[in-house]
């Protein structure tokens, strides 16, 4: 598939992000999207064809592969990339709504349509919460589906129609495990960045609201 739409989305979000948000965009684009397209996708490209069992019982190899890999690592990673990037559309849509509203009324209604304040601040905070939630859900999903973040060299399968316990071998397990660890590390980094940005925005605008109230009282 073409990842151009995701690249354009991240570029658009970058214009309305804080400094921490721009770091998040860079991490997603460079360390996740580019790594996925350039390297990881090729490693898992023929994972089913290269999955071998020491028996030629019809259907046994397919059933064992489905048992140990109910969802392909690389497809789940692609879905994760899409899901964690989608909440950023909320911010883009909200800014577009502000710009259209100004055109409709033919007057300046906001200091800047892309400035994070008021309703746009709430939308931005919701997008951060959703992105963090999706990251955590997918990490748990990876852990549950594959019994941890390891890719074994050998797996033993006794699922029917296999006549007995058979040994199955996974191709390039060390290489796959390195990229899986890289996936987990970048996901954790993105969670930390999202939580940092969320805390920063809440703290910043809490101080701003407090100062406004203080000034009003003094006046």
From TrEMBL:
GO terms for cellular component: connexin complex. This is Gap junction protein. It comes from Chunga burmeisteri (Black-legged seriema). Its main location: other. It is found in: Cell junction, Gap junction; Cell membrane. A connexon is composed of a hexamer of connexins. InterPro entries: Connexin, Connexin_CCC, Connexin_CS, Connexin_N, Connexin_N_sf. GO terms for biological process: cell-cell signaling. Belongs to the connexin family. One gap junction consists of a cluster of closely packed pairs of transmembrane channels, the connexons, through which materials of low MW diffuse from one cell to a neighboring cell.
């Amino acid at each position: 598939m073409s990842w151009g739409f995701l690249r354009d989305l991240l570029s658009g979000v970058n214009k309305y992000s804080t400094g921490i948000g721009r770091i998040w965009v860079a991490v997603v684009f460079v360390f996740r999207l580019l790594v996925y397209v350039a390297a990881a996708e090729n490693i898992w490209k023929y994972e089913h064809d290269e999955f071998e069992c020491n028996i030629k019982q019809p259907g046994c190899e397919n059933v064992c592969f489905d048992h140990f890999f109910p969802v392909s690592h690389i497809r789940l990673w692609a879905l994760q990339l899409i899901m964690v990037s989608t909440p950023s559309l909320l911010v883009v849509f909200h800014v577009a709504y502000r710009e259209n509203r100004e055109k409709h009324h033919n007057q300046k209604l906001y200091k800047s349509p892309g400035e994070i304040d008021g309703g746009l601040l709430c939308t931005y905070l919701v997008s951060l919460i959703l992105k963090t939630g999706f990251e955590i859900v997918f990490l748990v999903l990876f852990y549950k589906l594959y019994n941890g973040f390891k890719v074994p060299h050998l797996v033993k399968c006794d699922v029917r129609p296999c006549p007995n316990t058979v040994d199955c071998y996974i191709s390039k397990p060390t290489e796959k495990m390195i990229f899986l660890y890289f996936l987990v590390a970048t996901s954790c980094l993105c969670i930390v960045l999202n939580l940092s940005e969320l805390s920063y925005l809440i703290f910043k605008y809490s101080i701003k609201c407090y100062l406004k109230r203080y000034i009003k009282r003094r006046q």
